[in-house]
Amino acid sequence: MATSTPGLKLKEEKSKQSQAHELLKQCLQAYKDDTENLNEISELSLVLFIAAEVGNVEFLVERIHFDLDLLWKIDDKKRSIFHIAVEKRHESIFNLLVVGSIRDLLADRINEDGNNMLHLAAGLAPEEKLNAISGAALQMQRELLWFQEFIHMI
User: Fold this and answer.
1) Which residue of 35, 66, 79, 154 has the smallest Cβ count within 10 Å?
2) What are the transmembrane regions (predicted)?
């Protein structure tokens, strides 16, 4: 009788993530070595915004390390990956901006709705983030802490 153990599944998942990360690094290096493809891979910025939406910080770090100009890319709503990270409450992605010197330049950038990062941080978190915390009081406390931390970092 076979049973699955949570620890084994977690180990398998981490192994898959590690393999995917290594594959990404190898693909980016292959593109880097072939200068004809540099423009093509830079144009695939849609993947950046998807990674920012779902909170895939490892992917973003690798892509940005490969091409720093990607920090300046904006989506069709005039949002950078950091605007998306703030909106979706992905602190690990936002923290990449905090350690960089471009923070001030990107923080003031306005999206198509006329909002900068401060406005996005003040907005309500996505429902899936709120539902991860039980109780309205704890949800409100988490949102307040997020906003205070955001103001402190900016």
Assistant:
1) 35
2) none
